Please model this.
Amino acid sequence: MRILYSHNIDYLHDLDANKHPRSTASLTIKHKTHLNLKMIQALAFIAIQTTVVTMAGTAPDGNYTARFLGTDALGVAFDISIPAFAASGNTNAQIAAGIESLIQTARGTTLAGIVTNETVLSTAITIAFATGVQCTVSLTVPVGATPTITRSFAATIMPSTRLNGWPVMPEYYEHVIRGPMLLHRIAAIVGLTAVTIIGGDANDDNGLLTSTSLAATGTVQTTALERIRRYEAAFVPQFIVTSTTDPFGSATAGEFQVELEYTPVPELGYA
Model:
């Protein structure tokens, strides 16, 4: 999809009043702004892949080998199998922890520049890949083991980022009263599977817009925790688009706008 920015500013009036014979109080409301993000046609940004491997089945003894097959950020192909985890009387959670430990070791050697992080929670291993990497993870397992493997792709968009040749947007986000976030789904995205969007900032990525499908139309304001108007000393909004389809460029249609209202804090000066 091409990424287009529009910045709509609704100017409000200035208020001046003589409050004292020897001074003038000047209260100025600068403006109220709506930040719109529009995405049309093929995506122009790179989505980062995450893969989740969940161990299941009877946890049989034997060797469990993970294979990483794909291309790196430069398009160079790789095919890497890490050392096997030898299970012997282990639970699925213990097998997952063993495989995760081997991936962590390989991240410093054969998987360097491919895998950026891996974590394990109970029976699930979450693997994060470097920007631009496209990878299929598979497991060779003993009979009776039935692991599942899912992957998703997420692209983070921030107004301070230069995208698709458009200039970096000016920063209006210091000392403002930040309002709610609206999602205007003008045309459903076609060609991506399970495509969703969340909105917030780096501290709370879905604080203003919880996960919402982009495969539908209509305006949405979700019940996100930070949707209430409040003062922000410094605020940089971000939006994360996620899909299970790779590459994002397979989208053939779709358009949406993200609207964020914010008003600079009124200034009080004396003459």
